[in-house]
Amino acid sequence: MRVVLASCDGLPEGDGDEEALVAALVRDGVDVSWQPWGGAVDADLVVLRATWDYPDRLDAFLTWCAGVPELANPASVVRWNIDKSYMAELAAHGVAVVPTAVVQPGETPVFPDGEFVVKPAVGAGSRGAGRFTDHAAARAHLEAIGVKALVQPYQSSVDANGETALVFFAGEYSHSFHKGPMLAQGLGEAESGLYVEERLSSIEPSARQVALANQVLDVTAELLSLQRKDFLYARVDVVEGPGAEPLLLELELTEPSLGFKLTTAEAASRFSKAIQEAASRS
Known about the structure:
The protein is 29% helix and 24% strand. The protein is of the alpha+beta class. Mean pLDDT is 91; it is low at 184-196.
């Protein structure tokens, strides 16, 4: 069984978080290797892992995904998920999300009261995301990024409690980790690199957070006419709303970090098993 972990030219073997996964796959007898996306791939399964430069070459990336028959997650899922406008779609189907307005290039936005976030609808690693109170500065940021964007009220609970990332393999919950606050006022215009450095730690999610994450996957599977097990991997990022209620901040079905360094070795073993089962069905 041959499995390729897809990366990018800037990080040809990922950022190091997958070391436990590679070790688990090798232990399980899988021929696993890294390969930057863009070229021909010969494998039983290609797993998107560190393809974090795709916003700069979006059309080429989507074309490549569509040409890889044994891709996980599938190209149809990737195409839906990379545009974070899905937040509005999930909200319309009853999911509790951070309130999200979609702003097309050239549109005059209506900004929320207080602090708010402006970020590209298509982006990875929090690049291009900015936190504002000044409307003129936010409009300038929208003009600077020049693409479809999301505007969301900033959830002040993030400053104290950060985000909880819940990880699923083949539709089943695996583990969680904590992400500290990332956006200072006005951050966004001067960013470089493939991602914004995150402050991560271990955490146990609450029952309400797990329930929301399960609802997110159920609704998404129904919207895409799939089963939950069709999502080889998923990361559901949750924050606390004004009343401490869990809200969806982001659903990662394309290339999320999965926090293997922050949990036990069993997580990598679970993902190895899920990969092998998916590859055997291909």
